[in-house]
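Lab notebook page, bench 4
Experiment: in silico fold of construct C2
Operator: M.H.
Input chain length: 429 residues
Purpose: comparison with the prior construct
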Amino acid sequence: MSVSKAPPPHSHFPPNNPSSHLPLPPPTSSSPSLSTPPSAAGPPSPAVPPPPSPVKISMQEHFAINVCPGPILPIPQISDFFPRFHDFPITPLPPREKQVLKDKDKDGDGDVEKDCRREREQEENGEFADSDDDDTYLGTLEFNLLFDQENNCLHCTIHKAKGLKAMDSNGLADPYVKLHLLPGASKANKLRTKTLKNTLNPVWNETLVYHGITAADMTTKTLRLCVCDMDRLGRNEFIGEVRVALKKLKEGENKRYNMGLERIAQTREGNSQAVDSGAVVAEEERGRILVSLMYVTEKSSLVVGIIRCAHLAAMDSNGYSDPFVKIVLQPDMGKKSKYKTTVKKKTLNPEFNEEFSYEVPHDQLAKKTLEISVWDYDLGMSNDFIGGVELGINAKGERLKHWFECLKYKGKKVEYWHTLTQQGAPSSD
């Protein structure tokens, strides 16, 4: 449909020919109709008006004549070329079965039943479900725990993990396992496995040992196992964790666990450490030391062995210490009564395995007191006192028992773990 309008007064078109759009060229002399004489053509025809003179119009006016816009066509969308993309909402998929299982697990099902259900789901689907958010499946961790009360050790054997959440852009992860004993100083109680590259089903088969763990610790401590992804260019990422109350573990029992990883609020650790459990916890945070005593009758000497320390308090700004041990046999016997171990750099669980000998008659040993102190070495500054313990006739509890057994059983090495305290700290090292 076109709409015609009368030309405006200032139009260049002549009024007698409103339908013409462009001027016609003037007739040429070669045209046969004009070159025929009037006598041959018949009766005379009326006079033909002269052709209009050519009119020049602008290009804008030319394109504006009888122009009617057509239908507006839609702009091509990307969905026209890629049909899998839709600009309308898709019907959401039905909830996965694992989500229902997770809700059932919250009703009090045991860890064993939970693991069986998840393994059954994996076998049916052929693979682990993806984990796009915090509520999805994070994987499982398989490990063993063994408490050796005779040596005061907790053995943690990390076997493997299955179906971990992908953390890297390649759809894999670089996982490792980090262990903490709660409550307690985090770095002093931290152990970790090696890092395995590009896998969601890592196999470590690595045993980590906590030294200085007593039966009393087993009733109050909780073991936290965190699976993390190592990132060299950024911060290591947290995947999931499990927690085991050590009071459920019997002495000498090598118990196997296969638990699903969970996301637990990080404030739980801080809340656990903030629980006020008396002065005993405050003493334990200073650390513990394993000492061996043996009186050699043939040489009339007391052999003191500094084996290791565990869970020492951090004295440096990096969260660690540079510990060494100093021992003094009182009353002071001069230079022969003072010894120092080597310095172990940047650790809270140093292992020394050093022995020192004091030549003293057995009958005088009952009057002596052995002072053991642990220090943090600082270059160019005064060393920091971490904690100490005294063994002798004036001691109490395990310290007195250790001293009496050394005097009673000659030639036998007696080892005891002792808690370091700040009481009786020397004024200088």
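Observations: The mean pLDDT is 76. The first strand starts at residue 140 and ends at 148.
Next step: discuss at group meeting.
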